[in-house]
Amino acid sequence: MNTNNKPLVSLENVDKIYKTKAGPLKALNGVSLTINEGEFVAVVGPSGSGKSTLINMITGIDRPTNGEVFVAGQRLTNMSENQVAKWRGRNVGVVFQFFQLLPTLTVIENVMMPMNYVGTYKGHRRERAMELLELVDLPDVANKYPSQISGGQQQRAAIARALANDPVLLIGDEPTGNLDTVSAGLMFGLFEDLVDQGKTIVMVTHDRDLAGQIPRVEEVRDGQLVSAADVDQRLVASAG
Ligand SMILES: Nc1ncnc2c1ncn2[C@@H]1O[C@H](COP(=O)(O)OP(=O)(O)OP(=O)(O)O)[C@@H](O)[C@H]1O
Ligand SMILES: [Mg+2]
Hints:
This protein has 240 residues and is α/β, with parallel strands linked by helices.
């Protein structure tokens, strides 16, 4: 890992309170977290503990009720939704559990799509998309539609799309959650290569085996981060 102790993500005392019919629900409670450039971080924790909510703070998909979020030198908490969306398109690649490729576009068109919003790579978007499909080992299915390829292939296409604008930060919310073991392993290998090449990756996973291979594990419980020592203990216990 090429960590250089330069903070890329910084959450300061973040609360997220959802309004629900049953009253306010505190999904995040005073979360402070720093992730440095080049780190590979797993986010684990029980269902409903706040992992996706935490991830959505980092991508700017959602905003905190209290606290501050800084990513890549940008304070997200004082930007408009529009500004954040533009910023995200340039700086963050996101991969979800259900891939979320657009069904009416071919694989290569899906990969090219984020480039349209950013204005980079004009004139060679198709070549750039093809390079990314080669990186994820999918050049043969470039002109197929998502429904014509396997789940593992769709997820690799989604990773290629997430990398379209060469983001500093790659975020996955259970990216292997819907994959068989072989596809999950392939995808994980790809993430490891990307970290070796200097990307920063934050990935939610329910898979203890995968989490055990990730250098830093953050555990969320009831909207709070559990200290690293406790997580190490639990990983050791569950491995034995
Ligand atoms: N948009 C929303 N409106 C109201 N409550 C929400 C909303 N999103 C999440 N919650 C609630 O916030 C809490 C945290 O949810 P979150 O989705 O972050 O959990 P999670 O750890 O990602 O769970 P899972 O492992 O099942 O994906 C849960 O109690 C959930 O019901
Ligand atoms: Mg979730």
